Amino acid sequence: MKPTTRRMRRSTAALATLALAGGGLAAQTLSSTALPASPAPESLAAQGVPTVDRIAGPDRYATAAALAMEYGFDVETVFVAAGEDFPDALAARTPDGASATLLTQKDHLPAVTRAALEHLQADRIVVVGGTESVSDAVLAALGAYGEVSRIAGDNRYATAAKLAQEFPANPEVLFLATGEDFPDALAAGAVATMLDAPILLTRGDHLPGATARALITLDPDRIVVLGQDGAISDEVVDIVDNVAPVERVGGANRYETAALLADQYPVDVPNVFVATGTEFPDALTASALAGYQEVPILLAKQTSIPSATWSALDELSPQLVTLVGGESALGQPVEDALNASFPDWYDSLHVQLLSFNDFHGRLEAESGLAIDGQVVGGVEYLAANLDARRQTYLADQSLTVAAGDLIGGSTFLSGLFHDEPTVEALEGLGLDVSSVGNHEFDEGTDELLRMQNGGCHPVDGCYFPEAPYDGADFPWLAANVIKKSDGQPLLPGTEVREIAGQQVGFIGMTLEETPTLVSPGGVSTVEFRDEVETANAAAAALQSQGVESIVVLLHEGGFQAGTYDGCEGISGPVVEIHDGLDPAIDMVVSGHTHQAYVCQLADPAGEPRMLTSAASYGRLITDTDLVISRSTGDVVRSAVDSENVLVSRDLAPDPTMTEVLNKWSPLADQLALQVVGEASEPITGDANGDRGIETPMANLVADSILWGTQGEDGGNAQISFMNVGGVRASLDAGDITYEEAYAVAPFGNLLVTVTLTGEQIKAALEQQYIPERGRPTLALGVSEGFSYTWDDSQPQGSRVSTMELNGVPLAMATGYRVSMYNFLQEGGDMFTAFTAGTDLTGGPEDLANLVNYFQTVSPVSSPGSDRVDGL
Questions:
Q1: Which helix (DSSP H) or strand (DSSP E) does residue 855 occupy?
Q2: Does the pLDDT value for residue 8 go beyond 70?
Q3: What is the spatial distance between Cα 703 and Cα 784, in angstroms, rounded to a whole number?
Q4: pLDDT 10s digits, 811-846
Q5: CB atoms within 10 A of CB 457
Q6: Are residues 355 and 591 in contact, defined by beta-carbon separation less than 8 angstroms?
Q7: What is the pLDDT of residues 658-672, one digit of tens each?
């Protein structure tokens, strides 16, 4: 297959369910291009590829009749308009779209029109325009074929206004076109029919009274003005804007306007009509049929195809192209040119992959979620933006996937209920498949299996006993998470989806380092295997099943210095993994580092391969056009296109997600606002900042751990440590609520105390720097009374000195009681030195201890960040 041209990216839905934006092509002036060489039609047929179709008669009346026959018998209304002067007929539509348009001479009803009427057997026949367009004699002749009426005003504007009365008041959208030079409206007629939208006409520099009165009576939610100010002036637009918000859709010419309108249709559209843009009565009747079939209409010249039309066709990748009219309208060179390109469009299957990662249960729309200064995110808006993006693809050719950390480390509303609200929301927004991430293992493998398969929480029970948690309806994939008991994956490793007859395989993995990022005790029954070896083996297995299009969902990431849609200096673990992946793998959707990037890297065979990540917390969506050859079943790498788009809050919030929030919020509210303490000043420095430095918040949590583990009943702790990455929020001055305490400690860790020698404590502190770790430097907060010196200039393993407890140097061979979260004690974040501790004593759960600490010692103040010299 010949690669298709890199496709234009499609805009977000703004008009009903379609995106009608006046940018893009409207800003360009495009000229006709040279027509490519054409294979003979018989060679196309031999390849099993249909040739371009043509609906035509010897004249415009016969063409209109032939188009009307395409309706079959599903026509309730037939509009009959003049074939010589026909602006009135632009507005001839019915709300249900089941109306055809036929043409007549003023004083004579052509035989082909009679034959079409006989065939259609419509419930009613409506003559459009006054007797100067269609005579009473023709009206009488039409009576032989059904009930006839005439809709006419004093002029074309009044006639259009009367036709618009066929529509109910307050339509979602109304189209306004010029009645003086109206080819722009031809393509809009198809869109208007599909949207059940009326069309009104205006003069370029003046809004006729009939049109103004119709606008007020109809009271649309939105008005789309067709053409630039050369067609309809800004003065007219300003007047119309007083009725409803206005969008202008117009290119530099009729061809560009049609292309802009066609951009609103889904890719792989089943058909595209191409009509002449110079003599356009043919296109007028085709416009109604295109709207009825919900496909676009584009315009061409008699012997050439404008660049705007070529670009639109390549964007749409149609499965059929239908020319309207004979060779006097669209000549053989146009048909030959389309036949030359049509095999590529016919062979290209466009699959949309919408992806995101590291959602972390961020259900609510928070003011602090911003990218480039724009506030984004919130599950109601994530769902709305996903739905808007899906409008540009056929419904069964769009998949939504994720790369892990959807749950865990969540905000109060979700985390308080073990992320059941997030799973419910992810189901509602249409997630199809996800990989696991390290945070999916925060509460251990048993809890992850419960999240997948359902069942009430073993401790907290059922939050809604009448409707117990029933698990996720999307699969979490865990190809490299292997049960030690039988060597099988904990969860399925791959998922295959069939899209329009083609198979797309997904391989889901978390990073091999996952045991260092969660409490190791919770994952003691599984092992985490190498990402590259796992993915390559899984890809080979998929290929053996006949799957050639393969996407890896990988919870491991990288870093880049460019914009959220860029790839400037990509680095990090994901690059090494990518470079080792078999060329059979066509794309990598990644996560973990909370970074955003869209990269096209070379695979080991030198072919381009897309690597993406969508930041975190539902702030971005990656929209990928995954182009698959229908003949080979493999991805056409050169045609794949991805972009990161902001989860804008400009769209209306998704009502299904609102229901999810309203369901769970009352339960959360009972605890959320309970005041548990007070902060005398802001205390800052959490996981959202630099995790490689000592911070006041990490020291505060370390103080709370020491407070909860002192004395014989607590574990006799003398020193406490807290990893900065585990401190998930800071504190403002003032009251501390339960919700704010939860935001600091959402993981459900346990406090534990062990005995460590001074030498072992030093070894643990030295592990704050490990070059091989995803984040080389990870700092530890330390409790009051303990201090030490850190020197970055020293080699790894020799950076810690002068450790003191209450001013007394630590003895290397002496044992000290040290407390921390079980995450650290079990070797989390690669602090394996803590696992050498002995005489382990358990303690309270992290949140309960923190709440008790605040309740007992408040007001708390900032411990500062001067317990460590140099870090």
A1: helix 846-857
A2: no
A3: 6
A4: 999 999 999 998 999 899 999 999 999 999 888 889
A5: 15
A6: no
A7: 999 999 999 999 888
CA distance 662 to 654: 12
Q: Is residue 121 within 8 Å of 52, Cβ to Cβ?
A: no
**What's the pLDDT score for residue 367?**
83
What average pLDDT is seen over the chain?
Answer: 90
The mean-pLDDT minimum among 184-193, 339-348, 587-596 falls in: 184-193
pLDDT exceeds 80 at position 791: yes
> What's the whole-number mean pLDDT along residues 595-611?
97
| Token couple for 851 | 């709440």
Distance (Å, whole) CA 739 – CA 197: 48
42 pLDDT band, cuts 50/70/90, is very low
Both tokens of 826, joined, read 């079990």
Backbone angles phi, psi at 573, to 5 degrees: -60, -30
| Angstrom distances, CA of residue 329 to CA of 40, 262, 378, 531, 847 | 21, 21, 52, 59, 75
Give strand pairing partners of 508.
553
Q: Regarding beta strands 223-226 and 246-249, do their DSSP bridges make them parallel or antiparallel, or are they unpaired?
A: parallel
What six digits make up the tokens of 387? Answer: 């739905």
Residue 88 has pLDDT above 60, yes or no: no
How far is Cα 747 from Cα 727, in angstroms, rounded to an integer? 10
Token reading at 391 = 């409008």
pLDDT of residue 92: 78
Q: Is the pLDDT of residue 4 over 60?
A: no
Question: Do residues 775 and 691 touch, judged by C-beta distance below 8 A?
Answer: yes
* Cα distances (angstroms) measured from residue 673 to each of 412, 663, 735: 11, 18, 10
Would the pLDDT of 26 be above 50? no
- Determine the Cα–Cα distance for residues 125 and 79; give it in Å rounded to an integer: 6
List, in order of start, the domains of the chain with CATH numbers.
56-330 (no CATH), 350-660 (3.60.21.10), 673-869 (3.90.780.10)
DSSP assignments along 567-628, one per residue = -SS-BSHHHHHHHHS-TT--EEEE-SS--EEEEEEE-TTS-EEEEEEE-STT-EEEEEEEEE
On whether the CB atoms of residues 68 and 104 are closer than 8 A, the answer is: no
Q: Are 24 and 308 in contact (CB under 8 A)?
A: no
Give me the helices (H) in 121-262, please: 136-142, 156-164, 183-194, 209-218, 234-240, 254-262
Tell me the two tokens of residue 270. 């089943």
CB 297 within 8 A of CB 272: yes
Is the predicted pLDDT of residue 45 greater than 70, yes or no? Answer: no
Q: Which residue in this structure is represented by tokens 């004579």? A: 108
Chain position carrying tokens 């680095």 = 571
Alpha-carbon gap, residue 740 to 674, rounded angstroms: 10
Could you read off the pLDDT of 327-338 as tens digits, one per residue? 988 999 999 999
DSSP secondary structure letters along 793-804 = TSPTT--EEEEE
Q: In the predicted model, is pLDDT for residue 851 greater than 80? A: yes
Residues 331 and 59: their CA atoms lie apart, in Å, by: 14
Look at residue 287 in the predicted model and tell me its pLDDT. 83
Query: How many residues in the chain?
Result: 871
Q: Please determine, for residue 46, whether its predicted confidence score (pLDDT) is greater than 90.
A: no
* Residue 27 reports pLDDT greater than 70: no
Q: How many helices (H) and strands (E) does the chain have?
A: 25, 39
Buried-exposed string 255-266: b where 16+ CB fall within 10 A, e elsewhere: bbbbbbbbbbbb
Q: Are strands 374-375 and 370-371 parallel, antiparallel or unpaired?
A: antiparallel
Average confidence (pLDDT) over 358-379: 92
Report yes or no: 591 and 619 within 8 Å, Cβ to Cβ.
Answer: no
Distance CA 250, CA 20 (A): 10
172-187: b or e for each residue (b if 16 or more CB lie within 10 Å)? ebbbbbbbeebbbbbb
If one counts every other C-beta atom within 10 angstroms of the C-beta of residue 209, the result is 11
Neighbours of 818 (CB within 10 A): 29
Whose CA is closest to 122, among 81, 71, 77, 64? 77
Reply yes or no on whether the pLDDT at 36 is more than 70. Answer: no
